[in-house]
Amino acid sequence: xxxxxxxxxxxxxxxxxxxxxxxxxxxxxxxxxxxxxxxxxxxxxxxxxxxxxxxxxxxxxxxxxxxxxxxxxxxxxx
Length: 78
Known about the structure:
Layout: H1 3-10, H2 12-20, H3 29-38, H4 42-50, H5 54-65, H6 69-76
Helix pairs in contact: 1-2, 2-5, 3-6
């Protein structure tokens, strides 16, 4: 997970906007599991993420960009 990966998937402008969102969805074990189950292939993951409501998309971008790696790892250990 890195900012470069997120930029490649959604573009730097979309990632910037998502990272600036003050009220993204909470990262939960369910969201982490959902992302991990859908991450491959990248094109399908991109389309799925873009189809999510804005606050959920912002949480997904934060996860993929590595902006909240500690929170993701906490939920991924379950």
